């Protein structure tokens, strides 16, 4: 069964939005097969955001994501990667569709409440990158 990696980002955890966000995934019939709260290490973030290395916002996003604890979820279901990207909404909350998590709970392009893997391949790589930190056994 297809899996994806979701991160409820620092500002959303601080604002106690995790329960609301998790409910949205469950309302869409996705299964939470793992959940773990942790402080992301710079080492894990460097691997997770390797595609962004060289972008002007790279240092800032790594700094932000390691600034406070996050909640990492692994969700499972048919077509879960695309369903989660749809539910999360556009990267920029101001451009996200009404009803999406980023529309409702995102603050800025950087502090946009959630991460969701971009493809099935990316999801597999991300689960491998995060598995030790989040104590997930594949
Ligand atoms: O998260 P998503 O796949 O929608 O976007 P991305 O282009 O892969 O960027 C990853 C993350 O970097 C975003 O979710 C933002 O938190 C951050 N970012 C940023 O701070 N400034 C940008 N101009 C673009 C992305
Ligand atoms: Mg991305």
Textual characterization of the structure:
- It is a single chain.
- By secondary structure, the protein is α+β, with helices and mostly antiparallel strands.
- It has a single domain, classed as 2-Layer Sandwich (Alpha-Beta Plaits).
- The chain is built from seven helices and four strands, in the order βααβααβααβα.
- It has a four-stranded antiparallel beta sheet with strand order 2-3-1-4, with helices on both faces.
- The longest helix has 11 residues.
- The protein starts with a strand and ends in an 8-residue tail after the last helix.
- Cytidine-5'-diphosphate (CDP) binds next to loops.
- The site of cytidine-5'-diphosphate has 8 residues, from loops.
What small molecules does the structure contain? cytidine-5'-diphosphate, magnesium ion
Radius of gyration in whole Å, from Cα? Answer: 14 Å
Q: Tell me, briefly, the overall form.
A: globular
Strand arrangement, major sheet: 2-3-1-4
> How can the largest sheet be summarized?
4 strands, antiparallel
Classify the fold: give the CATH topology: Alpha-Beta Plaits
Which CATH first-tier class would you pick? Alpha Beta
């Amino acid at each position: 069964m297809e899996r994806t990696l979701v991160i409820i980002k620092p500002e959303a955890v601080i604002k106690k939005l995790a329960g609301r966000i998790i409910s949205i995934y469950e309302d869409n019939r996705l299964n939470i097969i793992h959940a773990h709260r942790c402080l992301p290490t710079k080492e894990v973030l460097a691997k997770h955001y390797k595609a962004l290395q060289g972008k002007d916002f790279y240092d800032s996003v790594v700094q932000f994501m390691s600034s406070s604890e996050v909640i990492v979820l692994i969700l499972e279901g048919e077509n879960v990667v695309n369903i989660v990207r749809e539910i999360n909404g556009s990267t920029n909350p101001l451009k996200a569709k009404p009803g999406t998590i980023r529309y409702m709970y995102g603050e800025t392009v950087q502090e946009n409440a959630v991460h969701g893997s971009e493809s099935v391949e990316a999801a597999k790589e991300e689960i491998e990158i995060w598995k030790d930190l989040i104590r997930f056994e594949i």
